[in-house]
Amino acid sequence: MLDSVMPLPVLNTFAGNPLDRAGDRRDDADWLAEQGASPDAMAMVLWEGRPLVEEAGEPRLAWLALSHARAVVPDRELFLGLWKGAPCFAVEVEGSADPAAGPLAGLGAFHEMREAAAILPGPDAAMAGTAKSLFDWRRRHGFCAACGVESENASGGWKRVCPACGVEHFPRVDPVTIMLAVFKGGAEPVCLLGRQAAWPEGRMSALAGFLEPGETIEAACAREIKEEAGLTVTAVRYHSSQPWPFPSQLMIGLICEVDSGEATPDQTELEAVAWLTRDEARACLEGTHPSIKAPPGIAIARTLLQAWVDGFDV
């Protein structure tokens, strides 16, 4: 069962972008030019995927007048949307030299996106994540997949068009199921966390995997649980979702019930698994568990774990 009824809002990190994306207007080149010429137009700045963050007072995105941003980064911008009628753009600086030590000195510091998301207000993290995903897509899709000719930017950065064959290319989002497996057949309910070898010592998280072509969310959840832990899924419930700009995924958060408490890590994706009672999971979240560290605060895996501890179930 996939229960789609979920009270709003469930705002995971990188969700809740407050901008009006103006998707019905950005194909109009004249309208976009007007937005870019507006004296109210402003821009955030990224350097190699890192947003510029103000450091005086509470951390927040540093916004520049678009004219200033264009002077620093010509021909490298995208249109993000409208904020109370004001046009909002993003520009990205490339190269090894830190712009905060050069043309943007005194305006803030560039932070790796995960680090920035942990300190920025939710709406700021969502806007920065959107910009990062779009710039990443632009870098990876510079040539037409149909004929190989270099494609051209269009729609303020939300589309690329092939000048040779006319094919239009749009940003892709890769769907990922991420699920907290729960077993209820023992003395008390337990949830399953897994560990990848590359993670920091003690870190464990919910299991996850990409959807494959022709696969439903429920089927992907069941397949990944079977492949990674050797368990059979008997029920699935949707919790919430999360944009994840590394580079551009949609994390589909689920709680699922499994038929056994005997999990076996596949030693390819997972090197270890652990079953936790609600009290043990709560200790992980509070940082008091003797050996297991919960997923980081920006991750939807932590949201799922907290939801289950608080009573959300299949």
Automatic annotation (TrEMBL):
Catalytic EC class: hydrolase
Matches recorded under InterPro entries: NAD-cap_RNA_hydrolase_NudC, NADH_PPase-like_N, NudC-like_C, NUDIX_hydrolase-like_dom_sf, NUDIX_hydrolase_CS, NUDIX_hydrolase_dom, Znr_NADH_PPase
Classification via NCBIfam families: PRK00241.1
The entry's keywords: Hydrolase, Magnesium, Metal-binding, NAD
Chemical reaction(s) catalysed: a 5'-end NAD(+)-phospho-ribonucleoside in mRNA + H2O = a 5'-end phospho-adenosine-phospho-ribonucleoside in mRNA + beta-nicotinamide D-ribonucleotide + 2 H(+)
Keyword NAD on entry: yes
Domain spans labelled Nudix hydrolase: 171-299
Cofactor: Mg(2+); Zn(2+)
EC number: 3.6.1.22
Record-given protein name: NAD(+) diphosphatase
Family: Belongs to the Nudix hydrolase family. NudC subfamily.
Keyword Metal-binding: yes
A Pfam entry, by short name: NUDIX-like
Taxonomic superkingdom: Bacteria
